[in-house]
From TrEMBL:
This is ST8 alpha-N-acetyl-neuraminide alpha-2,8-sialyltransferase 9. InterPro entries: Glyco_trans_29, Glycosyltr_29_Sialyltrsf, GT29-like_sf, Sialyl_trans. It comes from Branchiostoma floridae. The gene is sia9. Disulfide bonds join 60-211. The lineage of its organism: Eukaryota, Metazoa, Chordata, Cephalochordata, Leptocardii. GO terms for cellular component: Golgi membrane. It is a single-pass type II membrane protein. It comes from the Eukaryota. The keyword Repressor does not apply.
Length: 271
C-alpha cells in the first residue's frame, strides 16, 4: 500500500533528479511556503539518483527512543541488522551501548537542534562540538527536514556546510517534502489523528520499502512497561514528547502490522 502511494526508494530524500534546477519546493508542514531551486540550492543535493534506489536489506532495525530500552540488553540484537535507523541524535555511547547498540547507518536530526544546542554553529567551538557529537555515529547519513518549515532551511544548510567544511564522515541528506506529505496523509487515513506523524513513523514507513524484515525497538508510548514498572520518556532522559504527535495512535498501527507479520516489535528485554 505504501509503495502504491509513493516510490520511497527514489523519493525518500531530495536529489538533483527529483528536484531539478528551476523547480519549486513546497514545504510539507508550512504548506503556503515555497522555495525556488536556484543553483545555490540545487548544488546542495546529491549528485546521482537516490542512494536508496537499489537498497534491499534482509534485516533492518528501527530504533525509537522510549524509556523501554533502558537496561533492555537489546544492543547486540539491534546491531546485528544489515541497516540501522536511529532517531533524533539519540546517544549511543558509554552506558547506552548495551541497551541500544552503536551501529548507525541513518540517524535523524531535528533542524532546531542546530539553533538550540549548537547556537546556529556561529563559532568554531560550536562547530567542533557538532562534529564531535555526530562523529559517534560513524560514517552515516544524517536525515534532516529543511523543507518542513521555512525556519528549518537555514539551520539544515548551515549544518551541511559545517560537515563539509570540517571534512566529516557523515553526510546530511534532506527529507523529501513530497514523501513526507504522502506518508502523513497515508497514516491519517489509517487512524493516526496527529497533525503530523513522528520521525519514528516516517522511518518505519521507509524501512518497510527498503528492508525484507523490519524490527522495531524502543517504540512504546506509555510510562509503564508491560509489568507495570515506571518508565522515563526516553532511555536517556525524561523530557516530554512533542504535542503534535499521537504516539498511542502510531503504536496501534505498529501493533497491527506486527500482528499481520509485516514487521516485528520488541517490547520485552532482549535475551
Amino acid at each position: 500500500e505504501l509503495e502504491a502511494i509513493c516510490n520511497t526508494k527514489d523519493d525518500f530524500i531530495v536529489t538533483k533528479e527529483n528536484f531539478p534546477l528551476g523547480s519549486v519546493i513546497q514545504y510539507d508542514a508550512e504548506r503556503h511556503s515555497r522555495l525556488n531551486v536556484t543553483n545555490d540550492v540545487w548544488k546542495r543535493f546529491p549528485e546521482e539518483s537516490s542512494p536508496f534506489r537499489h537498497m534491499k536489506h534482509s534485516r533492518c532495525s528501527v530504533v525509537g527512543n522510549s524509556g523501554l530500552l533502558k537496561n533492555s540488553n537489546c544492543g547486540k540484537e539491534i546491531d546485528s541488522a544489515n541497516f540501522v535507523f536511529r532517531c533524533n541524535m539519540a546517544p549511543i555511547d558509554g552506558d547506552h551501548i548495551a541497551e541500544v547498540g552503536s551501529k548507525t547507518d541513518l540517524i535523524t536530526a531535528n533542524p532546531t537542534i542546530i539553533r538550540d544546542k549548537y547556537k546556529n554553529l556561529r563559532n568554531h567551538t560550536m562547530k567542533e562540538k557538532f562534529i564531535k557529537d555526530t562523529s559517534v555515529y560513524g560514517k552515516s547519513y544524517i536525515w534532516m527536514t529543511p523543507f518542513a518549515y521555512k525556519m528549518c532551511t537555514s539551520y539544515t544548510f548551515k549544518a551541511q556546510q559545517v560537515l563539509k567544511e570540517l571534512k566529516s564522515d557523515n553526510e546530511i541528506i534532506f527529507a523529501n517534502p513530497v514523501f513526507m506529505g504522502k506518508i502523513n496523509g497515508y497514516w491519517k487515513k489509517k487512524g493516526v489523528k496527529a497533525w503530523r506523524a513522528s520521525t519514528g513513523l516516517f522511518l518505519v514507513s521507509a524501512a518497510l520499502s527498503m528492508c525484507e524484515e523490519v524490527y522495531l525497538y524502543g517504540f512504546w508510548p506509555w510510562h509503564l512497561d508491560r509489568l507495570g514498572n515506571n518508565l522515563t520518556q526516553h532511555y536517556y532522559d525524561n523530557h516530554p514528547v512533542h504535542k503534535a504527535h499521537k504516539l498511542p495512535d502510531e503504536f496501534k498501527q505498529h501493533q497491527r502490522l506486527h500482528n499481520e507479520g509485516v514487521l516485528h516489535i520488541t517490547t520485552n528485554k532482549c535475551p
